[in-house]
Specification:
Oligomer: single chain
Strand order of the largest sheet: 1-14-13-12-2-3-4
Structural class: alpha/beta
Radius of gyration: 23 Å
CATH superfamily of the largest domain: HAD superfamily/HAD-like
Number of helices: 14
Number of strands: 14
Distance between the termini: 31 Å
Order of helices and strands: HHEHEHEHEHEHEHEHEEEHEHEHEHEH
Strand content: 5-15%
Shape: elongated
CATH class of the largest domain: Alpha Beta
CATH topology of the largest domain: Rossmann fold
Length: 377
């Protein structure tokens, strides 16, 4: 029965087929005279037609009575969207899997309309992502060109920026930073006057020979090692990061450590930032300071930039239980889980199986996608 939970949402379902660029058509309105697909949904639920209301709409109350979720979690529908939104002044929006597909480029129809309508209700919208690939300026452009809306740079919080803020304001890094990461991450560090080394392909020849390794020059005055997403990661970079971290005074900072891989095909698996972080952590026998979700530092960065944000009136909308919902719990804010990204209809089974006292992974609300909100505003 849990596999049918995605059918809880009879209205707009803005979900993309990853990597194809094609949109999955929204399901038809569920009425007693609907198509065969509707009858299959009811059959899967084991629910006769007469269980519906006279209008034929499947409400959140109906589904919650059929399949009780974790206590305290509400399925959103046209009867409770306004009630939810009226509680909050600030909405934090994840990006991958929420504003576009988890492949970073698949278009999700209706996002721009949703942003516009939320702003018409005077909601403060902040954009919070664990992606360390781009600097904030790149997100301003991406929001405009790919998602169709504008965002100010001070409203964007990526982990490349969060890492720079941590090094400057908390770690007080005075020397160089050996960086395993992207051009966007380098840009964010340099903007805060943090000197970086290590960006791009490593110039030394890869070798297992001890003499060759000893001949690789290590720079002086390296106060930090920062690890983000880096397509040029190799043995030499691991060797140098580990070597710098033998100094106990050298800070070890990671953009995020949970996302370790992404299946991008039947047989192809893409390593993500977490895999690189774990490799450096294992080799150096050091535990990193992680600045991304679900860790609280990202909330500190948000509050430093926007001190008027009230956590009690703030909602995090994301597609991941492990990062977005857990982050909301640690930050003392509410959470809404969307099923348009990492958590989809198949993974919702895991949500249903969570213990009642699971800390950090119980969302306050569940909705099919952020686009769903625009239908009822």
């Amino acid at each position: 029965m849990a596999n049918s939970m995605m059918k809880h949402f009879p209205k707009l379902l803005c979900r993309s087929m990853r990597g194809t660029g094609r949109m999955v058509a929204p399901p038809p309105s569920l009425t007693p005279n609907s198509s065969k697909s509707y009858k299959r949904v009811l059959s899967a639920l084991g629910t006769p037609l007469r269980s519906l209301s006279t209008s034929g709409k499947l409400s959140s109350a109906f589904f919650e009575s059929q399949h009780p979720l974790v206590p305290g979690t509400t399925f959103m529908d046209d009867t409770n969207v306004y009630q939810m939104l009226n509680k909050y002044e600030t909405i934090l929006l994840d990006c991958d899997g929420v504003l576009w597909g988890t492949d970073h480029f698949t278009h999700l129809s209706g996002v721009a309309k949703t942003i516009e309508k939320l702003r018409s209700l005077n909601k403060q919208l902040l954009f919070v992502t664990n992606n360390s690939l781009h600097a904030r300026e790149a997100y301003v452009e991406k929001f405009h060109s790919q998602a169709g809306f504008h965002a100010d740079i001070e409203d964007i919080f990526c982990t490349a920026y969060a890492a720079a803020v941590y090094m400057k304001d908390i770690a007080k890094v005075q020397g160089k930073c050996y960086m395993i990461g992207s051009k966007g991450m380098q840009d964010e560090l340099n903007k805060l006057d943090i000197e970086t080394i290590g960006f791009g392909p490593d110039s030394d020849a890869v070798s297992e020979d001890i003499d060759s390794l000893l001949n690789q020059a290590l720079e002086d005055n390296v106060d930090a090692v920062a690890v983000g997403y880096d397509v040029n990661f190799n043995y030499n970079k691991l060797f140098k990061a580990t070597s710098y971290l033998t100094d106990p005074k050298c800070h070890f900072i990671a953009t995020n450590d949970l996302e370790t891989r992404e299946m991008i095909g039947k047989r192809h698996c893409q390593p993500l930032t977490g895999a690189l972080v774990k490799a450096v952590a294992a080799a150096s026998v050091r535990k990193p300071e992680v600045v991304g979700k679900p860790h609280y530092h990202l909330m500190e960065t948000i509050l430093d930039t926007h001190p008027t944000v009230d956590p009690k009136k703030t909602l995090m909308i994301g597609d991941s239980l492990r990062t977005d919902v857990a982050f909301a719990h640690r930050a003392g804010i509410s959470s809404a889980l969307v099923l348009s990204g990492e958590t989809n209809e198949d993974r919702l089974d895991k949500l249903l199986a969570l213990p009642k006292n699971s800390i950090g992974q119980t969302p306050d609300y569940v909705l099919p996608s952020v686009c769903f909100l625009a239908e009822f505003i």
